[in-house]
Amino acid sequence: MAFVSGNIIASQRDILGLPVCDLGWADAFTFAEEVAGMPFGQSVITFLDAENGNRMVRDAEYRAVLQRQIVLPDGEGVDIASRLFHGRSFPANMSGASFVPALLTYMARPMRVALVGGDAATLGQAVETLRRHAPWHDILPIADGGFAPAQSDEVMERVRAAKADILIVAMDSPAQETWIDRHVGPGHARLVLSVRGLFATLTAGVPRAPVGVRRRRLAGLSRFMRAPNLAAPLFLYHILRYRLSSVSATRGSAATAKAGSL
Questions:
Q1: DSSP structure class, residue 151
Q2: What pLDDT shows up at residue 255?
Q3: How far is the C-alpha of 224 from the C-alpha of 206, rounded, in Å?
Q4: pLDDT tens string 155-185
Q5: What pairing do the DSSP bridges indicate for beta strands 8-15 and 18-21?
Q6: How many of the other CB atoms lie within 10 Å of CB of 173?
Q7: Cβ–Cβ under 8 Å, residues 114 and 130
Q8: 3-class DSSP state for residue 168?
Q9: Are the C-beta atoms of 85 and 15 separated by less than 8 Å?
Q10: Cα–Cα distance, 245 to 98 (Å, whole number)
């Protein structure tokens, strides 16, 4: 499989039945910058991690939503899946919390960046952090995540009125990708970044893993060891189960083909 946009061509790897782009950092930034600068159209970038990977396995509608978006790998669990299914790691493991600030630094052309999500205090602090980080962009707080579902279209009208080039959605809901799919359209921004928990991360100043650990691509495992949760081992279970079912299906097909040739 391959994903093509402008000057960027990226192959995609099947991770639990979902195509995940294997762009490196430079190509991912170039692609995002091209999309944000287009006069029309829209691309939605989201990140596959253990939590939304688990949701995808049990929720067919959510899987269909992810299949309509551009998915980048986030976390050691997704990298383990790539090595197991494809024999190699992804060129880059792109945590959304690292990707967004780095992307805004990469983009030299001033952009209008709209923010939706978090609570009121977190959104305000995230705006100030991003304004200090990349002061040449216009950082536009649109709404915190406390609005009622019925107010979604009203919120998006505010995004449209802001004439945003980039929309960053960082809601607490693990199904924010579904909200984007239902309510965000081409008139709202050319580039949409779906990054759950980004504003809280920017506000808290969560320390990154030590450089040596990141270079060994074990940042996700390091975080898991410090603060264990159920998402990581459950995702690993889904990976192993998918792998075993794939092997069984391949052996079954081979046996059928052999029987047919006799």
A1: G
A2: 46
A3: 14
A4: 999 999 999 999 999 986 667 999 999 999 9
A5: antiparallel
A6: 11
A7: no
A8: strand
A9: yes
A10: 34
Distance CA 26, CA 172 (A): 29
In the sheet with 70-73, reading across from the earlier edge strand, the strands are 70-73, 43-48, 191-194, 166-170, 112-117, 138-143
Place of tokens 């960046």: 113
User: What is the helix (H) or strand (E) element at residue 179, kind and residue range?
Assistant: helix 176-183
Please return the burial class of 102, using the count of CB atoms within 10 Å of its CB with bins 0-12, 13-18 and 19+: middle
Range in 52-61, 138-147, 216-225, 227-236 with the lowest mean pLDDT: 216-225
Look up residue 60 and give its two tokens.
């067919």
Q: How confident is the model at residue 204 (pLDDT cuts 50, 70, 90)?
A: confident
Which two three-digit tokens encode residue 163?
């004439």
Task: Give me the long-range contacts of 64-67 (CB less than 8 A, separation at least 24).
Answer: 65/177, 65/178, 65/181, 66/18, 66/177, 67/18, 67/19
